[in-house]
Amino acid sequence: MVFIWLVVGIILASLAYFIPGKGTDLWPSINPAGIVIAVYLVALTAYMARKPFQLKIRIITWAIFLTCGVSLFIGWRTWDEESHWQRSTLLNILGVIFRGVNEVYTHDTLTVVLKTYYSPSNKPHQSLGQIFLSRHPECRDGRPIPASQHTDSRPEYDSLYMYPVTVSDSEIVLAVSHKYAKGRDPAFKNINGKTGMVQIRQTLTPKGIRYESEN
Question: Order of strands, edge to edge, in the sheet holding 197-205?
């Protein structure tokens, strides 16, 4: 009988854990499994603390079970809240780091263009757009520029890509979005196809470079 109870408990807990679906957050799977386990333990306790055991023993058993159960529930909720708080805090930190790092990447890319534009060797006098496209010809087709070396060249698999928003003779606008870091507006449409993520934009004109944190 003990073996049957053990097998049934494992099967029920496993189904409750795996049925909710996929995702990086484990709690939507852990919580249903915890509920099933709690119900299972109630049934198991009721089965174990039954007659012919004395009433006193049964009361003590249920008292211990309830005490342990309440303590475990409080700890469970605390772990849940702390894990979500930690995740949110880490994503916020990631967003701050991302803005700083990619401001440097984008700024360096545009600085090279601006230096070339004002260089005495810029003869015949090329526009900002011409210089930029000569260095990044892929942007003629709207393709993004990798900000660093990657093992996977597909933009959808990397967060460090600079997307050309505007490329003209007098203005170049690059935008960079992150894949995971949450921005200020959850409804913001990112240039990389995501929604609500951090995004920065830098604009180059003959007067210099302007930085903007869009989300």
Answer: 145-146, 161-167, 172-182, 197-205, 208-213
pLDDT mean by block of 10 residues, the chain; 215 residues: 68 71 68 82 83 85 89 87 81 74 78 89 86 88 72 52 88 86 86 86 90 86
Predicted TM-score (pTM) of this structure: 0.58
Asked if residue 163 lies in contact with residue 192, where contact means CB atoms within 8 angstroms, the answer is yes
Asked if residues 139 and 175 have their Cβ atoms less than 8 Å apart, the reply is no
Q: How far is CA 162 from the centre of its chain?
A: 19
* CA max distance for the chain: 102
Bridge partners of residue 167, in order along the sequence:
172
pLDDT in tens, 64-116: 988 988 998 898 888 888 887 887 787 777 777 777 777 777 788 888 889 98
Neighbours of 94 (CB within 10 A): 16
**Alpha helix positions (H), the chain:** 2-18, 27-48, 55-118, 128-135
Other CB atoms closer than 10 Å to residue 119's CB: what's the count? Answer: 10
Strands 172-182 and 208-213: unpaired
